[in-house]
Amino acid sequence: MKTRLFNRVNLFNPFNLFNPFNLFNPFTLFNPFTLFNPFTLFNPFNLLFVLTLITVVASRVQARVKLVALPERARVVVSLNNPDATLVEEERLITLQKGLNKVDFSWRGVNIDSTSIQARMLSHPENVTILNTSYPPNENALIWEISSNEAQEERVRISYLLSALTREVTYKAVAEPNETALTLRNYLRLRNDSGEDLSNAEIGIGYGSTFTKTIEHGETLEMLSERVEGLGIKKLLTWDAATLPWDPEYEKKTVGIPLSYVVKNDKASKLGSHTLLPGKVRIFIKTKEQPENAGAAAGEGVAFTGEDWAQLTPVDREMKLYIGQSRDVKVTQRKTRDDRTNIRRNAANAVVLNDTDEVYKIEIENFKKQAIDLVVVEHIPGYWKMAESSHPFERKDAFTIEYKLNLPAESSGTKKTTVTFNVNRLNVQGNEPASY
């Protein structure tokens, strides 16, 4: 018996080809002989049926994962309080249907920390609930399942941490000719490499009022964030026994003593409202220029003094700005006594522990015609106690003390300032480090 698969009469019989019973008959449709018959497979009615079936299945699958894309931002707030990460809060208006909604949030090409993303409903928080959050594989996206009691428009606030939005603070300080006050300008420089355009963003830098700016991806923005005039300063010399020569003439090391402007971050100095952030400081001083004509008023200019890196300065703390070295003050320090006391030995009569009795003498000469402040920094390693001191000192840590002195004008020779102190080091083994 010949198979019907290759029966030409059956294959080309229009009643068989267009017979609706054959077309929708499951035994005919899924019959392997019929399924792989080229004349049956490419029958336009069969193709139409298959395509219709695929479309229905696809539409049902698509209906199950149909997402609500987020609209454009209604508001953006950028907080630059933390130098390591930027907090971004954006508000969007979304239209919810009654029941279950799926909302898609994606950030392809944007440096967002996915673990930091949070959403909060603002308009109807009691009627709108986020049920769960899912993260599609291999995508910078997430899907929120949101339940709404009724069809309504909802304002949602989305917050996240954004990286690669760098912040840099720079300062410009212009001192008065008498060096008793200066004008301090604080500049903020933003560099946006986050991959996201921030349009009409409300930017806060941790102090002062917020401002609205647009900064696109790859853009650098610099602006004046603060200006303080008449900021009181004082000049300060710092002599550190660990870094400067004790006897410059004997050691033939004639070096200057570091000189700084000192600014206190407090209300009395017209500051004190926030912490001063670290950044480069360029320092200038006002100068008097020669008048162009006789009898004309002298013009004003500025001269570049130097630059320094300002440290993080909390409220009520001091910021030191290095401006150079001074050779108008000479410091000479000598150890005038170094005795071992309370010696302890082991069974072999070898010294294992002892105390010391040390006396230091510091002579300071000021050749300037003005008085000036000087800080003398001393380092004492190990355990110790101060037996006697000619001047009060401040203990900065376990191994460091500071003498804060005011040197009278032209105090040299017999008028020089002399500081002596007697310190006892305890339980000295001889292998202690010179500094800690």
3D architecture notes:
- The protein has 436 residues and is mostly beta strands.
- The chain has helices at residues 8-11, 14-17, 20-24, 26-29, 32-35, 38-41, 44-64, 248-251; strands spanning 68-69, 75-79, 86-96, 99-106, 118-121, 128-134, 141-148, 152-162, 165-175, 181-192, 198-204, 211-215, 220-232, 234-240, 257-264, 279-289, 299-310, 318-326, 329-345, 351-366, 372-379, 383-389, 394-397, 400-407, 417-428.
- It contains 8 helices and 25 strands.
- The strands form 5 sheets. The protein has a 6-stranded mixed β-sheet with strand order 5-8-3-2-11-12, with no helix packed on it. Strands 18-15-14-21-24-23 form a 6-stranded mixed β-sheet, with no helix packed on it. It has a 5-stranded mixed β-sheet with strand order 13-10-9-16-17, with no helix packed on it.
- Mean pLDDT is 85; it is low at 1-15, 20-24 and 53-66.
Topology of helices and strands:
Layout: H1 8-11, H2 14-17, H3 20-24, H4 26-29, H5 32-35, H6 38-41, H7 44-64, E1 68-69, E2 75-79, E3 86-96, E4 99-106, E5 118-121, E6 128-134, E7 141-148, E8 152-162, E9 165-175, E10 181-192, E11 198-204, E12 211-215, E13 220-232, E14 234-240, H8 248-251, E15 257-264, E16 279-289, E17 299-310, E18 318-326, E19 329-345, E20 351-366, E21 372-379, E22 383-389, E23 394-397, E24 400-407, E25 417-428
Parallel strand pairs: 1-4, 2-11, 9-16, 14-21
Antiparallel strand pairs: 2-3, 3-8, 4-7, 5-8, 6-7, 9-10, 10-13, 11-12, 14-15, 15-18, 16-17, 19-20, 20-25, 21-24, 22-25, 23-24
